[in-house]
């Protein structure tokens, strides 16, 4: 039924949030319309749609760690993906990503007495949510708020009279809602063991569906949006609507108003992502196709790889306008210093919320210009589980044409909200490698490294085996797609987060002890939960009905 108090009422307050942030989001009249009676004009609907999409979906409820979806749920992804570590108490980030055991090459072991899975379940209560200790809560909150906002918009839409090509304008708003519903269901289905399908204004359901069914619903809405966009007849009216829906600060860099064809390519990238992130493609200890037990999903099949390849071949291209955003002092979606996981990692490591991981740094090839441009070793941060010698330079060192990972300055970095050229190219690379076209796949890896200014030697044409090619793919996905909300999903599908006793684990890692001793061949037994349980704020207030899927992952 979605009885969570924030999710249930958030669409009703969306316009209040939008008007409160009028200057930042450029949503117009401070006497903005309300759902009950005043959303009766084209301008009113645009104002409401912008405010409810961005504020409900990516801001409300996220003020605990940073101030947006891109700092909190994205931050969890980077913690669980071992891109960063943390020792702050906020939302239990100091405990969330600590592995069960670390074993160094000399046999030294570092055991975690507070294992992740029982810890997460201990804190999955409504009381702990109120205290800010239930990490399950936030992604569920944000994405069902976004979904509910879209349901509300679609309920209002039939009563609106549009100027110009009314059909194109109504279809553009419908595609907008379908896109974000696809996005929301993709996020829920990729993270939680089960979820709810709520597709009507004020709709209700207590029928929890398994994550595969939620992903299928995501695909349905993405495909609906694609079909609508393929039939747009008035590009000018389409552009007018989208220009009003996308915040001004998001219309720069790679962000902006995509053409219908560019938006369709973004959808294809997301459809490829939905397959790739929600199946296993084990690559443990350098072995392609290793076996994982007790997983909540299944292995990629030949048909799956073919589908990923097909979608990605028609996915985001170099130069496409995508869904991304820049921080701004006048931006209500996310702030320069606290609105993204990247900004929370930027600066002297003794002061930052997140600390860059040694496991992340080991994935750069020697001489990669992204390292010199973004990281230094001026300060070592000591911690029993994630001591690091590295810190992230605010705004980079200014190397021309080299990617910058983090900045706390207004507009200093770009946050990718959905797909990107790099992600699409690396999906093409992996699908190619896994279907026998290794050299083709390596070419895509080289293209991404060139695009980001890495300046490292090409790997195509060097005679790499499939396993060695996969090692290059893994390294590049780790470093190219950091801070984009994907890192945990990659470690899950490659099998690394699973207990070593079940075929998982991560091998050959750099690990620095709390005394500063450096090991370079460490084995990590993460033993993490693969798909999260439903938050108690939902499952307690809205108990599962007959025939529901489990709300607690039964595989762990």
Distance between the termini: 26 Å
Largest sheet: 4 strands, antiparallel
Shape: globular
Write down how many β-strands occur, each being a DSSP E stretch of 2 or more residues.
14
Which percent range describes the beta-strand content?
Answer: 5-15%
Strand order of the largest sheet: 3-2-14-13
Q: What's the rounded overall pLDDT mean?
A: 92
Question: Please, could you describe this protein's structure?
Answer:
The protein is of the alpha+beta class and about 550 residues long. About 40% of the residues lie in helices and about 10% in strands. It has helices at about 5-20, 20-25, 40-60, 75-80, 95, 115-120, 125-130, 135-155, 165-190, 210-230, 235-245, 260-275, 300-315, 360, 370-375, 420-435, 440-450, 465-480, 485-495, 535-540, and strands at about 85, 100-105, 110, 195, 210, 285, 285-290, 325, 355, 375, 390, 415, 505-510, 520-525. The chain has a four-stranded antiparallel β-sheet with strand order 3-2-14-13, with no helix packed on it. The chain has a two-stranded antiparallel sheet with strand order 1-9. A two-stranded antiparallel sheet has the order 4-5.
């Amino acid at each position: 039924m979605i009885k969570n108090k924030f999710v249930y009422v958030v669409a009703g307050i969306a316009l209040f949030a939008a008007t409160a942030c009028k200057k930042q989001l450029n949503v117009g009249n401070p006497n903005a319309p309300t759902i009950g009676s005043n959303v009766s004009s084209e301008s009113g609907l645009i104002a409401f749609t912008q405010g409810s999409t961005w504020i409900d979906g990516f801001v409300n409820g996220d003020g605990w760690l940073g101030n947006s979806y891109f700092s909190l749920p994205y931050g969890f992804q980077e913690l669980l993906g071992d891109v960063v570590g943390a020792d702050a108490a906020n939302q239990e980030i100091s405990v969330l990503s600590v592995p069960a055991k670390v074993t160094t090459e000399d046999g030294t072991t570092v055991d975690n007495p507070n294992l992740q899975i029982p810890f997460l379940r201990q804190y999955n209560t409504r009381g702990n949510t109120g205290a800010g200790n239930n990490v399950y809560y936030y992604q569920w909150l944000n994405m069902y708020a976004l979904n509910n906002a879209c349901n509300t918009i679609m309920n209002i839409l039939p009563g609106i009279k549009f100027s110009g090509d009314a059909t194109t304008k109504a279809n553009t708003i419908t595609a907008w809602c379908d896109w974000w519903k696809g996005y929301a269901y993709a996020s829920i289905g990729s993270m939680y063991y089960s979820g709810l399908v709520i597709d009507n204004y004020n709709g209700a359901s207590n029928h929890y569906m398994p994550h595969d069914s939620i992903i299928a619903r995501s695909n349905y809405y993405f495909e609906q949006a694609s079909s609508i966009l393929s039939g747009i007849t008035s590009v000018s009216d389409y552009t007018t609507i989208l220009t009003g829906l996308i915040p001004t600060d998001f219309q720069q860099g790679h962000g902006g108003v995509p053409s219908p064809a560019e938006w369709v390519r973004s959808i294809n990238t997301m459809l490829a992502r939905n397959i790739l992130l929600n199946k296993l493609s084990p690559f443990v200890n350098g072995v392609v196709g290793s076996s994982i037990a007790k997983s909540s999903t299944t292995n990629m099949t030949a048909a799956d790889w073919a589908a990923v390849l097909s979608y990605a071949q028609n996915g985001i291209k170099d130069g496409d306008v995508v869904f991304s955003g820049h921080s701004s002092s006048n931006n209500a979606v996310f702030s320069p210093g606290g609105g993204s996981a990247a900004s929370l990692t930027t600066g002297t490591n003794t002061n930052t919320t997140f600390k860059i991981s040694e496991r992340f740094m080991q994935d750069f090839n020697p001489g990669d210009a992204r390292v010199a441009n973004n990281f230094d070793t001026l300060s070592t941060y000591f911690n029993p589980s994630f001591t690091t010698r590295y810190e992230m330079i605010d705004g980079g060192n200014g190397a021309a044409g080299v990617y910058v990972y983090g900045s706390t300055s207004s507009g200093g970095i770009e946050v990718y909200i959905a797909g990107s050229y790099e992600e699409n190219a690396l999906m093409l690379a992996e699908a190619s490698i896994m279907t026998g076209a290794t050299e083709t796949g390596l070419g895509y890896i080289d293209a991404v490294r060139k695009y980001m200014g890495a300046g490292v030697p090409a790997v195509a044409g060097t005679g790499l085996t499939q396993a060695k090619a996969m090692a290059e793919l893994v390294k590049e996905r780790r470093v190219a797609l950091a801070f984009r909300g994907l890192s945990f999903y990659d470690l899950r599908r490659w099998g690394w987060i699973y207990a070593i006793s079940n075929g998982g684990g991560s091998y050959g890692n750099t690990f620095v002890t709390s005394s500063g001793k450096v090991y370079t061949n460490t084995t990590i037994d993460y033993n993490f939960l693969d798909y999260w349980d439903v938050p108690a704020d939902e499952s307690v207030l809205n108990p599962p009905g007959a025939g529901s899927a489990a709300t607690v992952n039964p595989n762990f």
